[in-house]
Automatic annotation (TrEMBL):
The chain crosses the membrane at residues 73-95, 101-119, 140-160, 172-192, 204-224, 239-257, 264-283, 303-326, 338-360, 372-393, 405-425, 437-460. It comes from Setaria viridis (Green bristlegrass). It holds the Pfam family GWT1. It is found in: Membrane. Keywords: Membrane, Transmembrane, Transmembrane helix. GO terms for cellular component: endoplasmic reticulum; membrane. GO terms for molecular function: glucosaminyl-phosphatidylinositol O-acyltransferase activity. This is GPI-anchored wall transfer protein. GO terms for biological process: GPI anchor biosynthetic process; protein localization to plasma membrane. It comes from the Eukaryota.
């Protein structure tokens, strides 16, 4: 009887797939730093190459330095395909078949950027371009798209053996590159949130209506995964909790407890300090234990208790977003001053993460402890700091790929989740060869980019509220 039920399941390898992503220990912090260098470095180099092409065309068009606009669908999609080949495909290679070359790739890209900057510094268009650079807010969209691209790539790649296990989420302590996904979404949202922009006119009712899509998606995920018997790693958030509920809970708390962005950083630090003391006093043992009672809190203990860590993270992000990109008192500061601040913050967060990981408690996404929060900020500001290098040559508009994803951030993420589910239900990912896995991932990422680009080209905004 049990065998017949298993045969009828839409996902007969569910247990094997759950075991495949369980009991992992993560990667090293240095490898995470190396991987975090690759995506923004590729984006910067692609922007520079696009800028050079634009300037060559601009010599015939009165000095216009803007990236080629989409005059027709052929030009648009050709540009999008080039963006895919120069940014997404190399990232896919490093995250799969070239994983042992991650350090070499990141070092090579850094050297290439440094050489390119030195080569271009003496050229006249550089000085002209630097004088017209906008504030760092223009780099935020590039950073947010980088977060979404890596997340979308990893959520399917992790189900194949071609994806290194050390990149996947750690079970208790430690961190793989995938552990930074939810934290990166929280930080990316915080930096550009209404709170960071000091918009206080939104009523609580309006706030709830803006959060409702996340709650809906959270319940939709529960129903869909149980309906098709989809694999769920309980150790991530709990039995019923998921990523969408965490984002919704943080938004609800921030809407209820209204704090001026000037004070959000201090409040966030106090929340994290108090939560870390609670963890070190024995809460951590409860959260990493596999024992669960029948009540909802125990069933979803990882997701519920970690809200405190994510809320503290969000508040710090709000404060940083306000001071770096919004505060009117900084209007007179030039871009170079802001860039230096971003680089100093990136280095400071990395140092704090290493200290906390070594002397207080090891990094744990499962608990969202203090070390994890600092690691997320260090990694995110590292990505942002590298993206600011684009301004050392000249500032070009975003890539077509970036504009497409930036217009439909949540929509593209949902599409990635749907495609991931379809692939898992139709392909035995555990037995797929490296070649088959890479071909599937290539088609998946290409389809995701093209559909998102198609929506952008025709002005379709996949917004749910």
């Amino acid at each position: 009887m049990e065998s017949r039920l298993l045969d009828k399941s839409l996902n007969p390898n569910k247990l094997l797939k759950e075991q495949f992503v369980s009991n992992l220990t993560g990667s090293s912090l240095t490898e995470i730093a190396a991987l975090s260098t690759i995506v923004p470095a590729l984006v910067v180099l692609r922007k520079w190459s696009s800028g050079d092409n634009t300037r060559r065309d601009a010599a015939k068009k009165n000095g216009d330095r803007v990236l080629p606009v989409r005059k027709d669908w052929m030009q648009y999609f050709c540009t999008l395909v080039v963006d895919y080949l120069t940014v997404v495909l190399p990232v896919l290679l490093v995250f799969t078949v070239l994983d042992e070359w991650a350090y070499m790739c990141s070092i090579s890209l850094v050297i290439l950027i440094a050489v390119y900057i030195m080569f271009k510094r003496s050229q006249s268009h550089l000085k002209a371009g630097l004088s017209q650079l906008p504030s760092l807010r223009a780099d935020i969209s590039s950073y947010r798209v980088s977060v979404v691209l890596v997340t979308c790539l990893c959520i399917l790649a992790v189900d194949f053996k071609i994806f290194p296990r050390r990149y996947a989420k750690a079970e208790t302590y430690g961190s793989g590159i995938m552990d930074l996904g939810v934290g990166s979404f929280v930080v990316a949202n915080a930096l550009v949130s209404r709170q960071a922009r000091n918009i206080t006119t939104m009523s609580f009712r309006t706030a709830l209506s803006s959060i409702s899509p996340l709650v809906f998606l959270g319940f939709a995920r529960i129903l869909s995964t149980s309906g098709v018997d989809y694999q769920v790693h309980v150790g991530e958030y709990g039995v019923h909790w998921n990523f969408f509920f965490t984002l919704a809970a943080v938004s609800i708390l921030t809407s209820i407890v209204r704090i001026h962005p000037k004070h959000c950083g201090l409040v966030g630090l106090l929340i994290l300090a108090g939560y870390q003391i609670w963890l070190s006093s024995g809460l951590n043992e409860y959260l990493i234990s596999d024992k669960r009672s029948a009540d909802l809190i125990s069933q979803n203990k990882e997701g519920i208790y970690s809200i405190l860590g994510y809320w503290g993270m969000f508040l710090i992000g709000v404060s940083l977003g306000y001071y770096l990109f919004v505060d009117t008192s900084l209007k007179g500061k030039n871009r170079n001053t802001q860039v230096v601040k971003v680089w100093v913050l990136a280095a400071s967060f990395w140092i704090l993460a290493i200290i906390l990981d070594s002397y207080i408690e090891r990094v744990s996404r499962r608990m969202c402890n203090f070390a994890y929060v600092m690691l997320v900020f260090g990694q995110n500001f590292q990505v942002l700091s590298i993206l600011t290098l684009a301004g050392f040559i000249s500032y070009e508009k975003n890539l077509v790929l970036e504009d497409a994803f930036n217009q439909n951030m949540l929509g593209s993420f949902l599409l990635a989740n749907i495609l991931t589910g379809l692939v898992n239900l139709s392909v035995d990912t555990l037995s797929a060869s490296s070649l088959t896995a890479f071909m599937i991932l290539s088609v998946y990422t290409f389809t995701l980019c093209m559909v998102t680009g198609l929506a952008h080209f025709f002005g379709v905004r996949m917004k749910f509220w």
